[in-house]
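Input sequence (276 aa), recorded before submission:
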Amino acid sequence: MGCDITRRGLPETQVRRSIFGLQEFRPSMVVAARRSRRWLDQPQNVPFRRALYLIHLWLGIATGLYILMISLSGSAVVFRRELTRWLMPPDGSFDTGYPLTLRIVEWLVDLHNNLLAGSVGRDINGVFAILLMVMVLTGAVVWWPGRRRWARSMIVLPPSRTRRFFWHLHSAAGLWGFVLLFGWAITGIYFAFPEPFEWFFNAFDDDPTDFQRPGEGILLLLIDWHFGRFGGLGVRILWVILGLLPALLFCTGFVVWWKRIRMGQAEGGRFEGRVR
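Predicted structure, token format:
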């Protein structure tokens, strides 16, 4: 009853009897099971993960300076409304000229929103937001270190206890900031290309004055999330700090990449898309 049976005409198929009847186990199923175990235990050796790592890496390098600029300018303008109210004269007029502080803030706002290039700059922002979305998603996949090491990859060890401090910092910061980065990417795409979102909402409710359309409430929440327009002063201060997260990820990612390049040159080898 428990022995294996080979069917004539299906030499590649192994059949075993169970309490539920005959179950067929084909080689493709065995291969799939092995790949699943490899992904769970040793994802570093999975070719698909290596490909995603290379996509994540080169997108990060290609968009790095943009990410740095958008991160710093975004943090700088979190208190734009508060600064405007504070510097605005009671009568709302600037007889002595627009304050330099506000001119700098408005310049940073235009840089952050439109890259100082009007609608063209906003469209470019949208393209980079799409690339950011790809980096966030590929980074989440690349982060997975295997079942035995996933808990350790959620924390950052001090430099004195690890030679891979910058990798651990990059990995953990990206993981803990995943939701924040994902929300920023979605809203960045919406600010540049609102039409697809409107088409989606109109498919369920074509009344643009109805703010209860499916998904629109979530989008409005994400917009407040993007600018930190919820909570009080504490949230605004926190958003100034968290706004530097993309800059941190770029800097740590660049250091990791550069160290690997130097190591490869020292060993006379070539850089490979493998992460341990």
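Checked by second reader. The chain has two domains: 1-41, 48-267.
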